[in-house]
Design a protein that fits this description.
Blueprint: H1 13-22, H2 26-30, E1 33-38, H3 50-63, E2 67-72, H4 78-81, H5 90-107, E3 112-116, H6 122-133, E4 137-139, E5 148-149, E6 157-158, H7 160-171, H8 177-186, H9 199-210, H10 225-244, H11 248-251, H12 254-267, H13 273-283, H14 291-299, H15 314-319, H16 322-332, H17 348-352, E7 376-381, E8 384-391, E9 401-409, H18 412-420, E10 429-432, H19 447-455, E11 463-466, E12 478-483, E13 500-504, E14 509-512, H20 516-524, H21 537-544
Helix pairs in contact: 3-10, 5-6, 6-13, 7-8, 7-19, 9-12, 12-14, 18-19
């Protein structure tokens, strides 16, 4: 076994002495060493309970004859980091997670891995690490938060996005501060990843689709005992994967990523999946470009309408049959590679045999979808030569095609201030630039301005375009990941106040209505601004990070 490099033979007596200093017995040292990358902390509501799952995983590993070796990883709560300097560090934390797990797994000669993530960058970071290490690996995520109950409207479910949008409603004079406080108290009633199909839950569901998590990993609520039982099963199953030498890259195949994109479209997942899936695929040695997204979206109906685009939440998807039911429905239509292997040791077809949709309103039949095409679309044009992304399932019909004057801002803060002060008019196209991976740095999420737009009732009239990105909770005509970004001298850098911008989501285009000669003239006179952060990790990150169109990976 791989761990023999650190424990077997006379020469390894000092190594065994150190294991014994930890408290391991000779019998435990002889067993396979199973790493547990546990992202528990008390900074993230989706992670505060992960120690409970880690204990269950350890129990499973011991039951199956292995020895658990636990270590920690970092994590940033995007909601708490939102709209201040902390958000610069969120996406960039993904690369630190990958590197730290690589260091721990190789430095301690671990035989296999159990990953315990839950929230936005932590899930893709651990998936990237799994692909890089190519050890037998299984995921057990922390699970989604339950939705809250609206304090004034019986039966109406609310979540974190309700709070963000309520801020805009207060600013518009349509709600008072006491009503906002009541919503604030009710919106997040349990631990877990925020209750809608935001980035964390998108990635947890797609982890299950790729085959790296047991059935139920994406949807069983955090507070359900079934989540603890699943963690024990994961601890048991990792020994089976180790014995069969079923490593991560044997599961994370091109077909597995095709399946992930297909389910992504069916669920209407976060636009952030367009950053993470290519980055994960690259670590697995799989080519995944943006053009695949439109091709898959065009043939995959949007069959689940979850918050922020719909009224349902992850607990509803779990009740309706979960990801297995979605996979079963798509497989029946020939849209899924059902022979793809999973961490169960079986194929998707075997895992989903006998699974049916239990609520056809939550998981609609393919011939009665919420939308005929998938949830995401990639747009191209002279404003985004390398592409940009929009969650088209969360765009109101009247904004699928829109043309208006550019309102140009060089930071999220100045754009948000203009929105909150009522300086944005119906028809405007808000441009927020120098917020990309390099220019931000760190490609901050724009949940505050998009929520303010929605809360003020402007989402039917105003678009927002940025080289930054959006929270999975953003809705409306929010177009992100403009590539090349402004800091790279992309065309978004030379948009002037009042320029006409045309958006045509069905045609997959976004156009700056300025002549090519004028664009060339402006670009010739453009000068890169000074970096916003000049010291520390983010300064290094800005120098090394790739374009959003390539997954914003550090090269």
């Amino acid at each position: 076994m791989k761990s023999d490099d650190a424990k077997k033979g006379i020469e390894r007596a000092p190594h065994r002495a150190l294991f014994k200093a930890i408290g391991y017995t000779d019998e435990e040292i002889r067993r396979p060493l199973i790493g547990i990358a546990n992202a528990v902390n008390t900074a993230i509501p989706g992670h505060v309970h992960l120690d409970t799952l880690a204990q269950a995983v350890k129990a499973g590993i011991y039951m199956a004859g292995g020895t658990p070796v636990e270590f920690g990883t970092i994590g940033v709560c995007d909601g708490i980091a939102m709209n201040h300097t902390g958000m610069n560090y969120s996406l960039a934390s993904r690369e630190l997670i990958v590197d730290s797990i690589e260091v721990m797994a190789i430095g301690h000669a671990l035989d296999a891995m159990v990953m315990i993530p839950n929230c936005d960058k932590i899930v893709p970071g651990m998936l990237m690490a799994a692909a890089r290490l190519d050890l037998p690996t299984i995921f057990i995520s922390g699970g989604p938060m339950l939705a809250g109950e609206h304090p004034e409207i019986p039966g109406r479910k609310i979540d974190l996005i309700t709070v963000f949008e309520a801020v805009g409603t207060v600013k518009a004079g349509k709600m008072n501060a006491d009503q906002l406080a009541a919503i604030e108290d009710a919106a997040c009633p349990t631990c877990g990843s925020c209750a809608g199909m935001f980035t964390a839950n998108s990635m947890n569901c797609l982890t299950e689709v790729i085959g790296m998590g047991l059935p139920g990993n994406g949807t069983i609520p955090a507070v359900f005992s079934a989540r603890v039982r699943l963690a024990k099963q994961a601890g048991i199953q990792i020994l089976d994967l180790w014995e069969k030498k079923l490593s991560a890259r044997k599961i994370m195949t091109p077909e597995a990523f095709h399946n992930a994109l297909t389910v992504d479209m069916a669920l209407g997942c976060s636009t952030n999946t367009v950053l993470h899936l290519p980055a994960i695929a690259a670590e697995a040695g799989v080519a995944l470009d943006l053009n695949m997204i439109n091709a898959i979206s065009e043939r995959t109906p949007h069959i689940c309408s979850l918050s922020p685009g719909g009224a349902h939440h992850i607990q509803d998807l779990n009740r309706a049959g979960g990801i297995s039911a979605v996979l079963g429905a798509l497989s029946a239509a020939g849209l899924i590679h059902a022979d793809s292997l999973t961490v169960t040791g079986n194929t998707i077809a075997e895992n989903t045999a006998g699974v049916f949709t239990l609520d056809p309103e939550v998981i609609r039949p393919l011939d009665h979808p919420y939308h005929p095409q998938g949830g995401l679309a990639v747009l191209y044009g002279n404003l985004a030569p390398e592409g940009c992304v929009v969650k088209q399932s969360a765009v109101l019909d009247g904004m699928l095609r829109h043309e208006g004057p550019a309102r140009v801002f060089d930071s999220e803060e100045t754009a948000t201030e203009a929105i909150m002060q009522g300086r944005i008019s119906k028809g405007d196209v808000i441009i927020v630039r120098y917020e990309g991976p390099m220019g931000g740095p760190g490609m901050r999420e724009m949940l505050t301005p998009t929520s303010a737009i929605a809360g003020m009732g402007l989402d039917a009239h105003v678009a927002l375009i940025t080289d930054g990105r959006f929270s999975g909770g953003s809705r409306g005509a929010a177009i992100g990941h403009i590539s090349p970004e402004a800091a790279q001298g992309g065309p978004i850098a030379i948009v002037n106040e009042g320029d006409r911008i045309a958006i045509d989501i069905p045609a997959k285009t976004v156009t700056l209505k300025v002549s090519d000669d004028e664009i060339d003239r402006r670009l010739a006179g453009w000068q890169a601004p000074e970096p916003k952060i000049r010291h520390g990790y983010m300064a290094r990150y800005a120098r090394q990070v790739s374009s959003a169109s390539q997954g914003a990976v550090v090269r």
